[in-house]
Known about the structure:
Elements: E1 4-5, E2 11-12, E3 14-18, H1 25-36, E4 39-42, H2 49-56, H3 63-78, E5 85-88, H4 94-103, E6 108-113, H5 116-124, H6 136-142, E7 152-156, H7 161-175
Parallel strand pairs: 3-5, 3-6, 4-5, 6-7
Antiparallel strand pairs: 1-2
Amino acid sequence: xxxxxxxxxxxxxxxxVMGVSGCGKSTVGELLGAQLNAGFLDGxxxxxxxxxxxxxxGQPLDDMDREPWLREVGNRxxxxxxxxxxxxxxxxxxxxxxxxxxxxPGTVFIHLHGSEELLTERMGSRPGHFMPVGLLQSQLATLxxxxxxxxxxxxxxxxxxxxxxxxxxxxxxxRD
Length: 176
């Protein structure tokens, strides 16, 4: 796999901005993509309609619901070669991240983490989003933090999105 390098020396290829609903994955992922001159894709756009309908009805997804979606996320990320891609994807469990890595080796995970209160507040202020606040508890219960052998970074969403992006860029530059 060929890797592009930005003017700032950051290695660009495959990054997942992960976390539970309401943590700011799409906002931070889009800003990070702009900062790194990388493509950005909101992983929610890859969900089959059945998954969206299930979540909109207040029903949490199970592993069988998530598997085809995660494979598609991995396929999209794995298809990049000379270009760079950032995808916003919850990637809540280790086995989900492993599934993505199987399709896209070398994927970096940036985990946006925050308090339940802040997440609830953010979710409540998103008009028209298919994910109801009532599913936050199931996502928090499902979440498995990054393990020591997973290449990733955890950032506190209490910081403004611009600061989160700068922290992520600084961390990536140290690993370049």
